[in-house]
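Something for you to look into today, if you have time. I want to see for myself how the chain folds. Leave the record below and I will have a look.
***
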Amino acid sequence: MLDRRVNLDLDLLRAFVSVVECASFTRAAAALGRTQPAVSLQIRRLEDQLRAPLLDRGGRGVALTTEGAALLPQARRLLRLNDEIVAALGDGDLEGEVRFGAPEDVATMHLPGILGAFARSHPRIRLAVTCDYTANLLDQMSRGMLDLALIKREPVGPDLGVRVWGEPLVWVALDSAVVEAAPLPLIVAPAPDIYRKRALAALQGAGIDFRASFTSPSLAGQLAALRAGLGVGVLPAAMVPRDLAVIGPPLPRLSDSEIALVSARNAGGPSGLLAQEVLRALERGPGPA
């Protein structure tokens, strides 16, 4: 039986929750600012402390044991209470500014709730949010103008940020009759948008003639054009509004993209805290539009 006088180590619990929510020791290590072996050791120490296996290491990925599944909600509750206490007492480590960037559609659809909750929990941390194309966000990151950024990228592995979720892309339009037009009217963002790149490559590969019927850097502008029946566009499958139709053949399949979180090399403190919150909230992927 576990000694009731054992005091749980919150750092070990945070590592456990991060591994589960990131579904990966490697991604959890990146979010926590530690090495993968260090995080693995923390999980072992927690299992030793609780005298129970928490993760099933027999298969691929991260799977909870019965004991791990029972611990997870309690660990989250303890960490949430700890963070609320620290924020309420105004710990000096939780003061500063985080410069955060994201593409407009990602920021509009997924960030308001996350950033709002973060701001309420950490009122002494100032948030400065920039919406721009991935290429511009990466340029700003390289020039030290951003601390964190969510970016759209090719599925390239861990070399460019921590993968947050995969994005299956689909063709969308007001109705399927749009595919009968020749050349195909296309609603796109300006270069270097990755969805534009996907659309042009797929159509050119399939030998389908097209014309740019509407170009806008704004997601709102593209949705307005789609709803007006001006052509066909590309959206992540999870973000297709209910009043627009997903178009299949004869249009070609689109290659997936990914959303990743990139951190500046010297990012820590408030930036690291926000990175953990973003990964925790978004790791399972975006909800329906």
Observations:
- The mean pLDDT is 82.
